[in-house]
Amino acid sequence: MRSHDQFNTTIYSENDRYRGIAGGRRVVFLNENDMGRLGIAKDQWVDLTSHFESETRRVCRFKAVPYDIPAGCAAAYFPETTRSFRSAT
User: Quick check: 46 and 59 in contact, CB under 8 A?
Assistant: First the structure.
């Protein structure tokens, strides 16, 4: 997703006043109940893994942020996640 101070892939600041994020964009927004179930604490650093077809991709060191998002879902900023994912296979 895009932050407040972003137009397409041009990022104008590290802040997102819409979501209360300041000083960085390496965050992953998660459902608070999911975080509890998975044992993830607020502001804990986590790695994200994606599985698609025969590939596994991973991006490291994103801060977990509880957010009003449906259970089973996650959201992160573009382009940080799309540029950061690298093949782990």
Answer: no
